[in-house]
Write a structure and sequence with these properties.
Length: 69
């Protein structure tokens, strides 16, 4: 029988793995050497929004937003 905290630990490990993959996909910028989970998720959300705007045909607006990522 696994220890009581086993599912929680496995979930945390999975979350950590997903966040590491997200760091590779999202341009983070050089402002800090260590990024928080909230900061990473916020930048990923903004990055996705900019991508959606570019796909919708608003490239100029997306390019202006990209400066702030």
């Amino acid at each position: 029988m696994p220890p009581r905290g086993f599912p929680v630990a496995r979930g945390r490990a999975h979350l950590r793995n997903c966040l590491e993959k997200l760091k590779v996909l999202v341009p983070l910028g050089p402002e800090t050497s260590r990024h928080t989970t909230l900061g990473l998720l916020t930048k990923a959300k903004r990055f996705i929004k900019i991508g959606q705007l570019a796909l919708d045909g608003d490239e100029q607006f997306a390019a202006n937003l990209l400066v702030y990522v």
